[in-house]
UniProtKB/TrEMBL annotation:
Superkingdom field: Eukaryota
Protein name, per record: non-specific serine/threonine protein kinase
Lineage of source species: Eukaryota, Amoebozoa, Evosea, Eumycetozoa, Dictyostelia
Boundaries of every Protein kinase domain copy: 128-420
PROSITE patterns: PROTEIN_KINASE_DOM, PROTEIN_KINASE_ST
Transmembrane segments: none
Enzyme class: transferase
Enzyme Commission designation: 2.7.11.1
Organism: Heterostelium pallidum (strain ATCC 26659 / Pp 5 / PN500)
């Protein structure tokens, strides 16, 4: 083991990949109680060209009480710069100060243990080279997310108050951006939804700028990837808790007349240990409840000829495709998570219930023996869940969520009553079954 003050090499691999192990990180320690978490990025600095720094910096995860180890992504160059940012919830820094960071040049061929107590965090006001001015506020661009699609670009940025936040610019679809702003304004005071911080409609350049809070726990797609990297899987108690939180979120959406239309792991964030729903660009506002009980719903259709982004964490969303062919009837959502009725442009809360079912099915495919199961569901509609890892009650409930008929999943109340009755003895869900639902 090579010791180098704050960093030492270690002999550790996960699935053949090198890792970064963080030690001596303790939120309860008096020295560290002023900041909330550590944000870890890798920088392929030798690729840099003019105004391209943020494209070569990749966020790989957060370090907190729940996670102290990260797997190096395949996209890291043979030699890269490690960047660790101290992220503040309520900063004690002066306005003229910059966010404190630690940097170190490392080799992809090695795993490292990073001793946080020994890391010398310094202020580098000009480290991040690009910035964006929105409503007279400056935001330093840190990293662009690799799974951005052709509809918008999403960046990790730092505001003047040292908070890390998300910045999204939308250059392709005004309706999508307007939907997102309208929904987030309605839900602004609700902690179950990603907080809208600022926005600006640049009519001259036809760009919508949206600033939202940064969720410290990442999203469920990242959580899925982390567990697969570590050869672990979601426990049933975790899945039950997620279902409870998501159904409470759906009740809030229903109270505001919103159908999200794009619930999937990468749009479900983790903030302060609880689930938070974001990305309302595909949402639909329902003035009156749409009765889909007697609609003739077709079997799942194959959606083809779509452009996918390489090396994505999550699948791309679809929005208002300009084709009348059967293969492109789905207009809002993500392949594999779109309900049968949404494929026929029929939007109601049953659509979101189906998407939650597909999201939970994806999480239940985390074990190495199950990882093709969600692809089978996407391509053939087959629902396969391990009976050795998960109970019959949970498996049956997922089948209910994914029922092809919206009539059979139209009521959260009815679905939860069935599930709660089956697991009462386990006491593993806290949803209030007395919550009124129309």
């Amino acid at each position: 083991m090579n010791k180098n003050y704050s960093i030492e090499t270690i002999d550790r691999l996960i699935n053949g990949k090198n890792v970064l192990k963080f030690i001596n990180f303790d939120d309860d320690d008096e020295v560290y109680n002023s900041f909330d978490r550590l944000v870890v990025l890798v920088y392929n600095l030798f690729r840099d060209k003019d105004n391209e720094q943020h494209r070569n910096i990749t966020l790989i995860g957060n370090i907190n009480d729940y996670s102290d180890e990260l797997v190096l992504p395949d996209t890291v160059d043979a030699q890269y710069q490690l960047i660790i940012i101290r992220s503040y919830t309520s900063t004690e820094l002066d306005e003229e100060d910059s966010i404190p960071i630690y940097t170190k040049l490392l080799n992809k061929s090695q795993s490292y243990a990073i001793n946080i107590r020994e890391c010398q965090f310094e202020q580098h006001p000009n480290f991040f080279q690009q910035s964006q001015i929105i409503n007279d506020n400056r935001y330093d661009l840190i990293s662009i997310f690799p799974n951005c699609n052709g509809i918008n670009k999403v960046y990790l940025v730092c505001g003047a108050d040292q908070r890390l936040i998300y910045y999204k610019d939308n250059q392709k679809c005004y309706e999508r951006a307007e939907n997102e702003i309208k929904a987030m304004e309605l839900l602004k005071e609700n902690p179950n939804f990603v907080l809208l911080i600022d926005h600006h409609d640049d009519k001259e350049n036809q760009i919508f700028h949206i600033i939202t809070e940064y969720c410290d726990g990442g999203d469920l797609a990242q959580e899925y990837k982390l567990l697969t990297d570590l050869n672990q899987f979601f426990e049933e108690s975790d899945i039950s808790e997620y279902i409870s939180q998501l159904f409470n979120i759906l009740l809030e959406l229903d109270n505001n007349g919103i159908v999200h239309c794009d619930i999937k792991p990468s749009n479900i964030f983790i903030h302060d240990g609880t689930l938070t729903l974001g990305d309302f660009g595909c949402c639909k506002f329902i003035d009156e409840y749409q009765d889909t009980q007697n609609q003739n719903i077709e079997q799942p259709i194959v959606i083809s000829n779509l452009k996918f982004i390489d090396n994505e964490i999550s699948e791309p969303s679809i929005f208002d495709m300009d084709s009348n062919t059967l293969q492109t009837k789905a207009t809002r959502g993500t392949i594999g998570y779109i309900s049968p009725e949404a494929k026929n442009r029929q939007y109601a809360q049953s659509c979101d219930i189906f998407s939650i079912g597909s999201t939970m099915l994806k999480l239940l495919c985390c074990h190495q023996d199950d990882r093709n199961n969600h692809e089978l569901f996407k391509s053939k509609g087959e629902i396969i869940i391990s009976e050795t890892r998960y109970s019959k009650q949970l498996i049956d409930f997922i089948h209910l969520l994914l029922d092809q008929s919206p009539k059979n999943r139209e009521s959260l109340q009815q679905l939860l009553n069935l599930y709660i009755e089956a697991i009462t003895n386990q006491d593993s869900i806290t949803f209030n079954v007395n919550t009124p639902f129309p």
